[in-house]
User: Fold these one by one.
Assistant:
Number 1:
Amino acid sequence: MSKTRTPHALQQILPGVLEGMRSTARPSQEGIESIWKRLVGEEAAQHSWPQRLIQGKLLVEVENSGWMYTLSLRKMQLLQGLIELLGAGRVKALVFRIGERKDAQREDKKGEKGA
């Protein structure tokens, strides 16, 4: 005997399917940077930048120890925001380290100072 399933309207099924796809898709670097900027604010985003998300750990480089300390004070709040915006299980830890931004935007700012 075969079971017959009750048909469901696409509008009832589609939201769940899309949510499932969103939760399994890896977020883009641009998406992570946008979320980071939204969470920390404009000023802090100029002095910190997410590098990579690997196995639930988001590595964020900061300009100096002062920014590392400032962001570390907000670590749990930032982690909760990342979890809410990226999805449960996507981010489990937030790690800060001192580093140097390597993108063109950083180079442009250095060039402006020397002019």
Number 2:
Amino acid sequence: MAPGPMNRGKTGVLHVHSTYSRDGRDPPEKLREFALARGIGFVGLTDHAEDLSPDRFERLADHCRAVSDDRVLILPGLEYRFAGHDGLHLLAIGLRRWIAPATPAEFAREVPAAAGFTIMAHPVLHRYRIPDEVAAAIDAIEVWNAAYNTRYLPDPRALRLLGRVRRRRPEVVGIAGLDQHDSRNDRETRVVLFDPDAPDPLAELRAGRFYNRGRTMRFSSRGAFGPLALAGLTVLRGCLDAANAAHERLSPLLAARAGRRGGAEPSP
């Protein structure tokens, strides 16, 4: 569990898409309303880089500044994908200028100086592999993606990946992300800063002065689960994944059965 006070801190959400992404439903104004309604102090956007251009990114940055104030900070950011690296998605939050890295190595060289916080997103999609140059440059690994890992439990294999990276770079932190495209479906993962008055939330995240919180648990930026706790989480994760898979298989059958009943002729 995370050290420090658990009942204080500025709450934030990360890995959020706006209407600047082709699949985002929420303009920055609506994300501000979403944040205010839930006591969220900062929102880290990660719009799809391939959907933007230099001019459109400038509009996004201006838009974020226009809807931000001392109650809610909307931070512009991009999600990068790379040809030949299926499933490797890298996030740059608090991006101060347009950059367009074409390879993971270019991301590692260019983005840290241009962004406030960098994350390897949902490692499950890249089969928990991380290029050496990325591991040497990023600030965080997303160990709980509420879309791919569900809102209920973090990903034990991502936590193990974090542990391997931290053996070489102990400053790398584990992060919970929403991967949100529609604020009507709030999956409830949060990051909570220990200092509620910190002027730069991304600096606090880089320093590890926060904890992750979801519907079922909270844990530190170090992702420090002991061997027994991690083994237990792995079992729970397997049970949840099996239940979800069974639900996906049964849902079409139940829907078809309900449809047949609904269309049946009434008895005479």
Number 3:
Amino acid sequence: MLLYKLLYFLKNNATSLRLALQEVLLNKGYRKFSRLIADAYLMRDISSSDIIHCQFSTLAPRILQLKNLGFIDKQPKIVCSIRGYDITNHSYTKSSYWQTLFSGIDTFIPVCQNFESLLRNMGCEKPISVVHSPINVRHIKSSPDIRLLQNPVRLVSIGRLVEKKGIIDALTALLLLKKKGLVFHYSIIGDGKLRQSLIDYVNAQKLEECVEFMGSLPSDRTLSILDTSDILIAPSKTAADGNNEGIPNVLKEAMLMGLQVISTTHSGIPELIEHKKNGYLCAENDPEGLAKVIEFVAGNSQQWLDIAKHAAATVMAEYTPEKTTEDLIEAYRAALS
């Protein structure tokens, strides 16, 4: 297949093929050259497009390389989404990576205002349009007016079991509350490299009777557990390697379904949650502060209805596919103009 693609470019774009041979094959070896030719062949008809949208910044250098070598014409505008992995995958010390993107990308599309600020602070002078990630509001039942406090209070967290999700902080907070007499059941949905260490912590602290690790579950099963829970805990925090969240979709889903949502003042989360209006916030990496918020929420169920209605209204106003599609179209128009 590589030979076929080489013959194709030898006939249709010999100049770009020669430049690729000089820049990649002679300097970086066969494997990177093979991937470059595969990329170029896959996108051989893309030059007639108005916009090329890189859904992750890690894809952008490959597109820019194709454009610089002439495999892609100068016509298409290149836009690039920026999510949590993107903005933290390459630290600020790796300025050459970001300067390449800042010089080659026409418009950046971060998923939250916090990432827009980070891009500006890193030196980005290109147009930036914030476009939030939507949730499927047709698939998720909105029921903010029927949820009542259960005994034991049912808590849930959903996400990969990695450091930035802060599950260890939730477990530490619940250990403090158990000692104060709170009766609860905590379901943890998700899997990841920290699973065993978290299980070991639960066993060591004798929390196994009230904490359940449910592993990765399909969407319908996850939604059914959310539907029977009282409070969602999302104690997000900055990981040791700098990894950040954007605005986790699970927060939006839980808010739409009528749960009380507790999270942290991490990254873009305060753009979604307004403390004591449509949810609750505490400082990140603060189990004691998290415990106080959980205790307050569990002890003030008379406020749940008002909080839940405001939460559902927030999601329906800003995070539907219709709203985010309108925002994306406006970002495209800005890029073209």
